[in-house]
Amino acid sequence: MKFDILTICYIVAAVTFIVGLKMLSSPATARRGNLVAAAGMFIAIVGTIFLYKDEDGLPLHNYAWIFAALIIGAIIGVVAAKKVKMTAMPEMVSFFNGMGGACAALISVIEFDYVFRAAEKMNYVHFSEGVVPGHYLAIVAGSIIGSVSFAGSMVAWGKLNGSFKDVIFKAQHTINLLIFAGVIVLAIITFFAVNAYADYFFIATVILALIYGVLFVLPIGGADMPVVISLLNSFTGVAAACGGFLYNNKAMLTGGILVGAAGTLLTILMCKAMNRSLTNVLIGSFGGNETSGGGNARTTGGTYKEISISDAAMVMRYANKVMIVPGYGLAVAQAQHTCHELEKLLEEKGVEVGYAIHPVAGRMPGHMNVLLAEADVSYDKLLELEQANDALKTTDVVLVLGANDVVNPAAKNNPSSPIYGMPILDVEQAKTVIVNKRSMKPGYAGIENDLFYQPKTSMLFGDGKKVLQDLINEIKAL
User: Fold this and answer.
1) Helix (H) or strand (E) holding 101
2) What angle do CA 33, 36, 87 make, to 5 degrees?
3) What is the chain's mean pLDDT, rounded?
């Protein structure tokens, strides 16, 4: 009876994962979707702890270790989530994803150790005699994919917080492919190896997979990191699904499949948004670092011009339509609430206001949507790339708040630019463009922005939050 109840717990958890994921597709229901999926995970965890029995009919017994780990992990997770700044959200996602990959890999390592010791007790000569091929495939796939996800996510986390830099060297693609081939070869050798040495080959497989995970992410440029995070997230999901298969855990299997599938689809969508090749991601050549020559050269030339707070306020106050383009700078300044205040003030004055959202604005898919949702900005005002570009054609004033690479015309007219071909927000179609930045330094991709030097563009320098507050005060006085 208890086994039946546990199965029901897993089925309920699996259903909540599916429902929660569906709800995450809309900003209006995303918060509830997260809670629904979390409730399902809670049911699965409680059911496993108190209802699970092994093949001998014995329940779990090491409750002290289990609850100690749960309490410590919960405290760390809650504190980290409470304290993290919105600007650091991409690196937190990468770090947590890496932890998930490590857990999935450890599950496979522990299962291999169990099978290996069982083969030793049976005095099998070859390791393959003591394990079903399908079972071993799940073990080795989970350990390899989980290790790559863990190592790659740690490098991505370091890159996002500035600890690591891009590393490129000769024959990098070839070396990466050779290492990956070595991982596969070692995994095959482990299966057919003499049992006494199978564990050594397996350890070598995991170590080489960790090395590949590091080398896989090292050359990838900053502007392309959102795609990499999505891909690594899908890896973690697949590794977790392997763990679910090993333990016949339907909740883990379903959750892993959902994460793997969703991560893969998101990766494809991000590749499309960045106009990159998924093949290049897989062989570690993803990013614009290899472009040399005139990648940073301006195509427009000339000098930039500044605009005062009072002039900017006047232009926006008497415009019919204003479009706000949020970027990483807005997140750094924690100015989302002030931005919403400006939006409401302009609407009170009869100005139509919308937000143009690029898929990878803020260094992470959906980053700007989350940021603005925190400030209670209406979801109806958030326009995606194609919608925004249509609206920009009839916009009087565009206010760019800390966005850089996603509004750079070089992506369309400079073939030597590393971001050439990347779909961007066509803000130059508006009558007037006002760009708020702290300075003229390049964006995350390290590329100078042609937009800043165009005749219809004016620069409004300063901290995003202070500039917005000054604009609010000036508009109120008009």
Assistant:
1) helix 89-121
2) 50
3) 86
Whole-number Å distance between alpha carbons of 323 and 307: 18
Q: Assess whether 363 and 330 both reside in one domain.
A: yes
Tell me the percentage of the chain whose pLDDT exceeds 70.
90
384/425 same-domain check:
yes
pLDDT the model gives residue 251: 86
Using CA atoms, how far apart are residues 211 and 205, in angstroms rounded to an integer? 10
Look at residue 296 and tell me if it is in a domain.
no
Compute the residue count for the chain. Answer: 478
Say yes or no to pLDDT of 135 above 90.
yes
Q: Based on the domain organization, do 325 and 267 belong to the same domain?
A: no
Distance of CA 79 to the CA centre of its chain: 21
How many structural domains comprise the chain? 3
Q: Show which residues are catalytic.
A: 405
Same domain for 334 and 463, yes or no, is: yes
In a domain, 24, yes or no: yes
Domain that holds residue 6: 1-83
Residues 277 and 264 in one domain: yes
pLDDT tens for 240-251 read: 999 999 988 888
**In this predicted model, which residue has the larger pLDDT, 368 or 135?**
135
**DSSP code per residue over 325-383:** EE-HHHHHTT-HHHHHHHHHHHHHTT-EEEEE--TTTTSSTTHHHHHHHHTT--GGGEE
* Closest by CA position to 229, among listed 271, 183, 191, 257: 271
Indicate if 207 and 221 belong to the same structural domain.
yes
Token pair listed for 472: 């609010």
Report the pLDDT value the prediction gives residue 90, as an integer from 0 to 100.
79
Domain boundary among 83, 105, 127: 83
Residue 107: exposed, middle, or buried by beta-carbon count in 10 A (0-12, 13-18, 19+)? Answer: buried
Name the CA dihedral angle for 45, 47, 48, 53, rounded to a multiple of 10 degrees.
Answer: 170
Is 361 domain-assigned? yes
318 and 230, same structural domain?
no
3-class state of residue 273 by DSSP = helix
The answer as to whether 265 is a domain residue is yes
Average pLDDT over residues 153-158: 91
Taking only the tens place, the pLDDT of each residue in 193-244 is 998 899 999 999 999 999 999 998 888 766 667 778 888 999 999 999 999 9
Q: What is the pTM of this model?
A: 0.78
344: tokens are 């409401």
Residue with tokens 């302009």: 346
User: Can you give the CATH number for the domain in which 428 is found?
Assistant: 3.40.50.1220
Tell me the C-alpha distance between 123 and 118, whole Å: 9
Residue 282 has pLDDT above 70, yes or no: no
Residues 74 and 106 in one domain: no
DSSP3 helix / strand / coil % (the chain, rounded to 5): 65, 5, 30
Last residue of a domain, one of 31, 64, 83: 83
